[in-house]
Every structure is written in C-alpha cells, then in structure tokens.
Amino acid sequence: xxxxxxxxxxxxxxxxxxxxxxxxxxxxxxxxxxxxxxxxxxxxxxxxxxxxxxxxxxxxxxxxxxxxxxxxxxxxxxxxxxxxxxxxxxxxxxxxxxxxxxxxxxxxxxxxxxxxxxxxxxxxxxxxxxxxxxxxxxxxxxxxxxxxxxxxxxxxxxxxxxxxxxxxxxxxxxxxxxxxxxxxxxxxxxxxxxxxxxxxxxxxxxxxxxxxxxxxxxxxxxxxxxxxxxxxxxxxxxxxxxxxxxxxxxxxxxxxxxxxxxxxxxxxxxxxxxxxxxxxxxxxxxxxxxxxxxxxxxxxxxxxxxxxxxxxxxxxxxxxxxxxxxxxxxxxxxxxxxxxxxxxxxxxxxxxxxxxxxxxxxxxxxxxxxxxxxxxxxxxxxxxxxxxxxxxxxxxxxxxxxxxxxxxxxxxxxxxxxxxxxxxxxxxxxxxxxxxxxxxxxxxxxxxxxxxxxxxxxxxxxxxxxxxxx
Amino acid sequence: xxxxxxxxxxxxxxxxxxxxxxxxxxxxxxxxxxxxxxxxxxxxxxxxxxxxxxxxxxxxxxxxxxxxxxxxxxxxxxxxxxxxxxxxxxxxxxxxxxxxxxxxxxxxxxxxxxxxxxxxxxxxxxxxxxxxxxxxxxxxxxxxxxxxxxxxxxxxxxxxxxxxxxxxxxxxxxxxxxxxxxxxxxxxxxxxxxxxxxxxxxxxxxxxxxxxxxxxxxxxxxxxxxxxxxxxxxxxxxxxxxxxxxxxxx
Lengths: 470, 250
Ligand code: SF4
Hints:
The structure holds 2 protein chains of 2 kinds.
Chain A: H1 8-17, H2 21-41, H3 46-62, H4 64-77, E1 81-85, H5 88-101, E2 106-109, H6 113-117, H7 120-126, E3 130-133, H8 136-144, H9 160-170, H10 180-197, E4 200-203, E5 207-209, E6 214-219, H11 223-228, E7 233-239, E8 243-244, H12 247-261, E9 269-273, E10 287-293, H13 297-302, H14 316-319, H15 322-327, H16 338-349, H17 351-359, H18 366-370, H19 377-390, H20 396-409, H21 412-428, E11 434-435, H22 442-445, E12 450-451, H23 458-469
Parallel strand pairs in A: 1-10, 2-3, 2-4, 4-7, 5-8, 7-10
Antiparallel strand pairs in A: 5-6, 6-9, 11-12
Chain B: E1 2-6, H1 10-15, H2 17-29, E2 32-35, H3 45-50, H4 53-67, E3 72-75, H5 78-91, H6 96-107, E4 109-111, H7 112-119, E5 128-135, H8 139-145, H9 149-155, E6 159-163, H10 179-182, H11 184-200, E7 205-208, H12 211-223, E8 229-232, H13 233-237
Parallel strand pairs in B: 1-2, 1-3, 3-4, 5-6, 5-7, 7-8
Helix pairs in contact in B: 4-6, 5-6, 5-8, 7-9, 11-12
C-alpha cells in the first residue's frame, strides 16, 4: 500500500470523476477481451489446457522447496549468482549492492510487477542510481510519476492523447507524433542511447525453469533483450512462485499466458536467459544475478492462499472485471489491481489497510471464468471477508445491522411480522410505484429508483388465499 | 406427483409477491404439487457475503431443516438457489453430519426456469405476449448453475414475443447484494452502462431470472427515463405480465 494515500472510497470517487479514465480503460481492456475471446474460440482444447496449466502450477506450488533447490543448483551451474531475499527490503538491498559493486550510474529496467511490488524504482532512486525504463508503458508512467494501473499494460490509464502531450513536454526531440508508431519512434530516439550506456540491466521473470536454471521472459517490444544484453551486469528479480519444472512446462503455460493476456498466439519475443556470457558467445552480460524473492509468499502458502500462487499474471481477470473496468488500477491502492490484486494486496499490505478490496466485488465470477490456471478468485475473496469478520475488522454498523437481521431471520414468526411492517412502511414513501428517497436507503436511491413493494408480502397473500380456499 | 417446496426468496416475499405466484402456477402446469414451507425466511446470503460464516451456518441449518423433506426445492432466483446448491455444502465442510444434509439438499435444489426445462421437461404451450424483450443473464445463475439456454428456450414458446439480444448480456449489472449499497458509486457506474445497453436494444421489455438484479436495472432505467419495462421471466411465462411492471403502480 502506498503511503499517505486517501481511503478507498476517495480513490474510487477520484477515478469515477476522471473524464478520460473509462475511455482509456475500455480501449485497451475491450480489445484484449475481444482478442482473447477469438483466440479461445479457435483453441478447441482450451479447457483441457487450463486444467493442465492449473495442475502444473499447483504441483510447483505444493513442491516449491524441491524446485527451488533444483533451480538454484542448475542456475549456479550456468554461472549465475543466486541470491535469496525474504522481504522486499532485503531484495532491494541486494539489487542496490550489486549495482554499487558494478559502479553503476544508470540502470535499465524492463517491466516487472515484482519490481513494483518490492519498491525497486524507489530504492534505486534513493541510492542515486538513474533508472531508465525500456518498456514503452513503463517509460510513460515514469514520466508521469504514476504507479502502474494494470499488470500487463502499466500505462493503460493514459489515453493516446495524454501520452502525446506527455512526450511533447518531456522529450528532447518529440517530432510530430501523428500516430502511435511515430510516438513509439519518439520514445526510441529518447531512450536508445540511454539503453546502450547502461551499466546494469534489471528484468523480471515470467518463468524460472528448474531443470535448466534458465530465466524466461516474454515481451512484445523486445525491450527485455535490450535490458539484459548490452549491460555488463544483468539482474533478474523474481518471486519464488515463478518456477516451472522444465521448458516443456514453460511452453504449455506460455500458450495460456499469451492468449489470455492479449489473444495473440505468442509474444513477439520469448527469451530464455541462461547465465552470463560464455567463451564463444557473441554477446551477453559478464555477471548474471538472480534474486529470488519471498516477500510473504511462504506465508500465503501456510495461510490458505496456495491457489493464488498459481497466478501467471496474465491480466485476464482485470480485463473481465466490471469493477476494474470502472475504477481502474490506482483505486485499488496496492501494487496489483483487479481481482487478483484484491486477493494479493491484503496478504502483502495487511488486511486492515485492504479490507475494502475483499468487499468491493459483486462476486459475479467472471474472473474465475477466464483465469487460465483456474484460480477460484471469488472463493479467495470470501476467505478474506470471513477473516476480516473473525478478526473484528468489520465496522460496528455492519455488525449491528447484521446481528439484528439474524435475530429476526432465525425466528420465522417474527420475520413475518417484521417484513409485513417494513413493506407497509416502505409503501408510505412510494409515489406512483417508486421510492425516490427513504431513510436508510440512500445508498440505493442516490443513483436509482427503488421499486416500491407491490403489495402485502407473499407470505401474507399466500396465507390469505389458503384460508379462503378452506 | 413430484412434491416441490417453493423457496420464495426474501426479495420476492417483500418486494414482488406476484413472482412467487407465477412460480407456483408454472410448477403446477408442469405437473408438480407445490408447498410453501412456513419456516423459511432468507437463504443466508447477507451473512455469507459479509463474512459472518457462523451466522450464515445458523440460517443455513434452518433452511435445511425446513426443506429437506421434499422431493425438490425450487427458487425463482439463480442467486438464492446457488447459495443452497453450491455454498451450503462448502459451509459445512468441517461438520460431517450437517455436510451430508447440506449435500442432500443441494442435490435437489434448483433455480425455477432451469428446473422447468431440465427436470420437468416442460415448455409453455398457450402463453402469448406481443412485443419484444431483451434478456440479462444474472451472474450466479449463469456461472454457478449454468442457467443460460433454459430461459430462452421457455420464452421462445411465448407467441408474439421476439428476442432482441443484449450487448454484454453476461456482464454483471452491479447489484451484488449489499455491494450496491456499500459501494454505491461503483455499482452506479456499472448499472449505468447496463441501462444504456438495455435501452439501446429498443426492446419493450427487460426480462431476467433474479429480482435483485431486475430491481437494480429497473431502478436505473427509471431514473434515465428509459421506456423499457421490467418483469421476471416467470411472470411472462405464467401469463402474468399484463399488470404493472417492476416499479409501476397498480
Ligand atoms: S489470477 Fe488468473 S486471470 Fe488473474 S492474472 Fe492471475 S492467472 Fe491471470
């Protein structure tokens, strides 16, 4: 959770008040949704592939210690250095130390949500190290000073028009920027020299392949390659759950990941990085570091959230979520937004700060329906609600109202009296069938009319009919 | 004769009893004897969705005890039926005795429209209603119970009634039970979009199978001055859509 931010309701209001946010979200997520639907329709074995994806991920999560040891052994054999970080602070400290040892003045970074999760951009800044983002969207939000608002398209909240303004204001040679392609060119001109001058490149990982010690990254811009090949030192930061047993497993998951994310068959660039430059290699870094980050993951495993660790960060659950589609990523207040973020953020930032996320969901199930590894997101959100109730974090107004309702609902005779009285009372507020305002109903009537009860309760009418029939 | 217990649902009981009577009429036409157990109140969803698991179990036991003696339990709501059918067994995972009773009840609990087609194999023969309708697929019925083709199959039998497909018919309407009053601004943004799509179909009627969602959408259609009138599908099928729609006065 970012420090000093306004509460959830205020963040939601700010998002809903934005004149451009909804358009920006709909453009990107709408395209993603349509393309995914097309890709899935053209894949007859998609449901079986999801089962396989779930099983691979579940197997790894349940045997994580085994695969971590195997990965470390094989990565070391490729000449990589492997570091273990149990917290985000540890992870940042390790990365900064490697940068210092390499006497790095500037680092390039390719998009990594794990990097955002552990606060790496800030840590680098605090250490006085210049950070150059190679991913176009990351470059945009760096210029704008925003956190990412989507796990696949971090700058999704910005419209093309806003990006153009941003580039015009901050690039040395923005050019005309008539279309998206010329905007990409503008960013290339700005960044290319910086990529080549960087001492250290930092990337994330989509998969860590246990039996080869390789790190797999996928991008559409080829920026991960620019991050990881020219600099002398390459640092990979990865969550420990990114493991897969073998390259074959990585490929099976890759098909699910890319189709679920963008609807494409494969990303433009899929790279397996194995260790530093070897004698005879044309290029590659002199040093190759892998920082394996726990940051609460083993706790999640012990806390009933093992299923969430299956996540391959495809973003489909965000794209198909009506709440995300309306409030965007920033309103969630954590690193990860949308349904998967609402499950992860309470684990990462603590339930008291994030209890709204578990409740701000209609439990409509669209996220679970599209998740390529079949994570039961609504069930996990319910789990947080139960826990929030047990730990007494729910507001007393809710507890009192629910307590009263339970008292009545467990006594059918009293319930009959109470509902009949409530129906009579509500009808007093009705005008031509509608209640436009009524005490305690403001949450409803502020935005919509409340249809007045159409008569006495069903139970009253039914009993009356039965009496007449006798 | 098949003995069916009607789970009226708390919303139908209080807000729109005619849906309950439509359900009885349809079930009887389909050859069932219908009983309405006295001891019913609510399916437990308010407690379940608030995270009050103990509270939800207390109400669930009451539902199980009141309904387990019948051949079938039928509710004119996908959401309440799914609570019994899907969530009751989950709620008692740690209690073997109640888990067995919950599972037995779950097996014979159905949403009304899918019960008529899938279990009774019944279709209406003499229903008529000239005009056009659009259909919203409520989320719990759709994703937890697989209700989608059944209401369309039934409504296709209604003479003179033509379907106008709804853009985003499987997208949540923003009701979500207490969600809509806990997060009114988000719910409003969602239902605004839904109301626009409904009005854009040009249909005379909006139909669906869940009163909560229907009240939410009808309430927004009303505020936006839309001419679309809202009914529960059961009312149309039972020939009871000649009276006031949801929110219209008698
Ligand atoms: S939870 Fe599932 S749908 Fe959401 S990002 Fe993770 S893998 Fe994708």
